[in-house]
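Review form for a predicted model. The reviewer records the input and the model, then writes brief findings.
Reviewer: anonymous (R2)
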Amino acid sequence: MEVILREDIDKLGNRGQVVKVASGYARNFLLPRKLAVSATDANRKIVEQERQAHLRKEVKLKGEAEDLAKLVGGVTVRIAQKAGENDQLFGSVTAKDVADALAAKNYTIDRRKIHLDEPIKQLGEYKVPVRLHKDVTAEVTVIVVKEE
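Model under review:
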């Protein structure tokens, strides 16, 4: 069965693409969740209009993310944590801690956009990537210092 995707779906295709799928998959999963529509001429025109609107919206969001990346790119935040010997932290610095430190500097960034491979457990200076858009990433400098 041929369907037109209305959303990007991993391992299947992108928005607006016509793909061939098993009829059960389309009937039981894609169509009820409005992730796809059947590939008719009328639906092709409607999906093409939706795709154009989505592209315009995407360009606007990307532009806003690039502007924010310029502002956030040079930001340095200090986080004070309790530490023991050998500069080992008693806890750890997570994406939430970085988001809170950025919020204190009036940058509202969702913690899910801050990508730490693993929590920071040592004192020091770290470059933390912040993914503002799928194509735009900024780096924030995080300095972890010993709490007095």
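Findings: The chain has a mean pLDDT of 89.
Further findings: Strands lie at 2-5, 18-20, 36-38, 76-81, 88-93, 120-122, 124-133, 136-146.
Recommendation: see findings above.
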